[in-house]
Amino acid sequence: MGLITKIFGTYSQRELKSIYPIADKIEALADEYKALTDAQLQAKTPEFKERLANGETLDDLLPEAFATVREAADRVLGLRPYRVQLIGGIVLHQGRIAEMKTGEGKTLVATLPSYLNALTGRGVHIVTVNDYLAKRDSEWMGKVHRFLGLSVGLIVHDLSKEERQAAYNADITYGTNNEMGFDYLRDNMAIYKNEQVQRGHNFAIVDEVDSILIDEARTPLIISGMGDKSTQLYDMAESLVARMKKYVVAEVDSKEEEAEDIDADYVVDEKAKTATLTARGIAKAEEFFNLENLSDPENSTIAHHINQAIKAHGVMKRDVDYVIKDGEIIIVDEFTGRLMFGRRYSEGLHQAIEAKEHVSVQRESKTLATITFQNYFRLYQKLSGMTGTALTEEEEFATIYKLDIVEIPTNRPIARIDDQDSVYKTEQGKFRAVIRQVEECHAKGQPVLVGTVSIEKNELLSRMLTKAGIKHNVLNAKNHEREAEIVAQAGKFGAVTVATNMAGRGTDIMLGGNAEYMATSDLRKAGLSDELIAEATGYAETDDEEILKARAMFTERLAAHKQVTDAEAEKVRATEKLMESLIPVLDDFARTVDYAETNGETGLLGGVKAVQAKLSDTLAKGGLVVISPAGEAFDALECQAVGTVDDPSVPDETVAQVYQPGYKMGTKVIRPAMVTITTGGPKREKPEEE
């Protein structure tokens, strides 16, 4: 930390000083707005629109508009935005990125600036990473907007033109980056204006902004049309390449000449994701197709098909880059882990994969329209975003999108522990270590979520867990239909969930299980419509008998499930409490053994030591770790110094003697060790501050 930062604070801290007074104004209105009836609160929306028409600005209306949404969210959802969420909303309205830690309620934050900016009538787009989140947020947070008299639209896969037009004409539209980008491309290809679905690009709030604007932005959106009919060349190239031998390297050094005696027909560069024929491979191709020279211009088509075939075999991996579903090759999004229906690889690569997997080879396609996410999102007059991890891409956001990042403080101190990475020599060694850790956690009932980079690794770990006899759930693009159910149950006592990065964005795993999901599921099984369920889970005043009946049913089922989930959560917590309660027993054993050895009473010493060892082993298996750092550097987080020893022969602050061992579970210290430390020796070097 530099001197200037120490004196003046970080950029975010300085920016927040100008935002705090606005948050104070919002909070000052709380009692006044709480006293309003539902009708009076709802009347604020036309009032704000009128004031805008009369010359007031959105900034003028901000404190009152945010106070309105805050009160509405409390009444409709039972959720009242905290002060830090108000601050996050202000940052978004200003067209900036709000970095908010996981669990701080970013979804609720978006309701504040979206309502304010929707008052202009020019539309607000709230962009999420997948259909599941877009649908969830439009139904959940949409209750607040609808209560205040605004319309809410949803853009997901498989909507008609008319449905898309209606969704974009709504005051606030939820959707995914892919769908909105493709709609823009289709609008540009439309012949008549009435065929277009979007009405402009006023204001966008991008959830998980680093994932969408940085990670996914490397892949352009492409709309393809029917090209030439597929030929037999794909099958012929497949017949040739299937018999070829590949040689895989981590990275090809362009400075090195290819070894003439290499025992392979083509070389795969894992880093660049390319495949290249060797001299031997070229000779085989020329013999197979009866060609004099594969490099001749008239043979370029054959060469292209061979190159795509070796790429399909060498680079594109099943259950990593794509899956086979209902006889079709479906691309897996490498950033979200989700299936990309309707998307195909270009330049004949998709056909080459179809030939490789022996499914029906579809007609070739040609590019009709394309756009990058960088260019699409720069169309918006105002752009903002939210994420928990934006500062690492600060430079890219500033350069490409002219967006700055404001780090929002957490509502409560962070309780989550971020451990250091563990590095293993081999992949198998790493996976065996994962299984061991899962076994330890599972034995004491601790819920575990294991993340993997691909479906392939996901299923490999699943097989290893099955072999170890550990019951678990698997979440990947192949079974995305059960996503909500799996996530809802992932926090139950002893639950083990193996997931791809599908579970990494916008998913809430609650200790003991998600009672609300289970209650909602009961209503769906009882035949209630999604619209009625949305009303049943809301808090807005109503005299509709059907809604009141559904609400009573939801309340009853929620209470029943909550009993179960609370008990499950307590089971998990009880393990730690049990460990804590048994520590004095370990102390008693240690004192007994010490007394017996000191006074020569050895009659029962062997038996006592055996019981002591058994108890210690049982607690260790439950996750209890002994802290006894004699001879190590003093750690104030794990030890308490009760005295000093003058010893110039060892570095200062070395643990000289452990008077009472400490204990921890994971990284949580249950009891610090009581120790004496050395003085008078050479000073220890302290690590430099970053």
Structural class label:
alpha/beta
Shape: globular
- What level of helicity do the residues show? 40-55%
Reading off the top of the CATH hierarchy, the class of the domain at 3-221 and 374-407 is best stated as Alpha Beta
**Secondary structure tally: strands:** 24
User: Main beta sheet, described?
Assistant: 7 strands, parallel
Rounded Rg: 31 Å
- Sequence stretches where pLDDT stays below 50 over 5 or more residues: none
Distance between the termini: 6 Å
CATH topology of the domain at 3-221 and 374-407: Rossmann fold
Rounded mean pLDDT is 85
CATH superfamily of the domain at 3-221 and 374-407: P-loop containing nucleotide triphosphate hydrolases
How would the blueprint of this fold be written?
Layout: H1 3-8, H2 11-28, H3 30-34, H4 38-42, H5 44-53, H6 58-77, H7 83-93, E1 97-99, H8 106-109, H9 111-118, E2 124-128, H10 131-140, H11 142-147, E3 152-155, H12 161-168, E4 172-176, H13 177-189, E5 203-207, H14 209-215, E6 221-226, H15 233-241, E7 246-249, E8 266-269, E9 274-277, H16 279-289, H17 300-314, E10 322-325, E11 328-332, E12 339-340, H18 349-356, E13 365-371, H19 373-377, E14 382-387, H20 394-401, E15 405-407, H21 427-443, E16 448-451, H22 455-467, E17 473-475, H23 483-489, E18 496-499, H24 515-525, H25 530-536, H26 545-598, H27 605-621, E19 624-627, E20 639-646, E21 655-660, E22 662-665, E23 668-671, E24 673-679
Parallel strand pairs: 1-14, 1-15, 2-4, 2-5, 3-4, 5-14, 7-8, 16-18, 17-18, 20-24
Antiparallel strand pairs: 6-13, 8-9, 10-11, 11-12, 19-22, 21-24, 22-23
